[in-house]
Amino acid sequence: MKIDKKTIDMLCRMPDDKLWGTIKMIASSAGIDLSSKRMSPRDMQKLRYTLGTLTDGDISRATEIIKTYKNGR
Q1: Distance between CA 71 and CA 65 in Å, rounded?
Q2: Which of 21, 31, 40, 45 lies 20 to 30 Å from 15, alpha-carbon distance?
Q3: Which residues of 14-44 are buried (b: 16+ CB within 10 A; e: fewer)?
Q4: How far apart are CA 6 and CA 14, in angstroms?
Q5: What is the distance between the alpha carbons of residues 63 and 13, in angstroms, rounded to a whole number?
Q6: Is the whole-model pTM more than 0.85?
């Protein structure tokens, strides 16, 4: 999945369960296990707010971090 501003906006429009499932899938593809984590409605609200305020620079940096984890560094 390519992560860019358009993708982030699409994620923000998802229902909570689908958004959390997608985030877990993205994390899993980078070797990060979130399967035991639970998100409250308030946590999801905070997550949506944070995603909605990301800049292109933030997204670029997050992509770099994910690549680093994926490569096992």
Answers
A1: 10
A2: 31
A3: eeeeebbeebbeebeeeeeeeeeeebeeeee
A4: 13
A5: 21
A6: no
